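Q: Structure tokens for this one, please.
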Amino acid sequence: MKKSEIISLVTALMDQITAGTDIELVDVEYVKESGHYFLRVFIDKPGGVTVEDCQKVNVSLSEHLDAADPIDHAYMLEVSSPGLDRPLKKSSDFARNIGRRISIKTYQPFYGKKQFEGELTAIEDGTIKLDLGDGEIELPYEQIAKARLIVDF
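A: Here is the predicted structure, written as tokens:
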């Protein structure tokens, strides 16, 4: 299977596994690092996930993957929290984090650059509004390559 097909399959399996729970799938990564393959699944829930949540999802997902057998080589399955600087993927992620500082990378330049940091002020009509401190900008949602929360200590 291709990488995109594996990610789609894992996403569908996670929808089944998390149905009826308060656990949310945040992201799925399938990568090769130092000659080894890793399937990483990031989950979250209100109040944060526990080690037990990660273990339960890992066991259930592992059983589903063993039955489907979509990957024809050895890999490591990792299930974890997305961390404090979690990625923002879905429009609901952006909506839930209005008022927070985020970093955004775009596919193409806007306002002469592709990287932005500021306070997320709104998401509406397919547009992300970001206050950079010296003014507000608008970025098309579909042009966002990556977005993450910024953690200030």
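A few notes: The domain at 3-80 is CATH 3.30.300.70 (GMP Synthetase; Chain A, domain 3). The longest strand covers residues 113-124.
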